[in-house]
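Progress report, Aim 2. The chain analyzed during this reporting quarter is listed below.
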Amino acid sequence: MVRLIDAEGKQVGIIPVAEALRQSRLAGLDLVEVSPKAQPPVCRILDFGKYQYEQAKREKEQKKGKKKSDIKEIKMGFKTGDHDQELKINKTEEFLKEGDKVRVEIVLRGREKAHRDLARQIIQEFLNKIKIPFRFEETLSGGPSGFSATLFLDQKKVNESKEKEKDEPSSENSKS
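Predicted structure tokens for the chain:
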């Protein structure tokens, strides 16, 4: 037994499955189970191809509203200069402000792999220079070709700092 809904959307009632199939064949459409967990299950007479198209369209519309968080990569070498590091720090901060996750990586090549402790120190200093608050999704870890860490914006600390700025009166206004 199933609860049947016809092609116009009107409830036919609770009927045997064989009768529901017969009615769908007479209409030249498909019998689709739309709610299998209901008691009794709900079936509908409709064009299945059109139904699938509308479902896909609805899902696409729902995905449209969500922001996809990308993982941006910042790669450094063992010999990356100070100016280049500053540019990479600024780019990292920009990515974090946009809400993206950032994977910071130092790549070691050849004989540089013998100086893993120095590479760890370089990437740690890089992370310390980032001015905006962040948290680790993946902490600093070493691999065969270097070290990497994945960061994201710490929204709690950003909100706390904004609240502190609102609560403290600006020093310019208090002088007048």
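The longest helix spans residues 48-65. Residues 74 and 104 are 5 Å apart (CA to CA). These observations will guide the mutagenesis work planned for the next reporting period.
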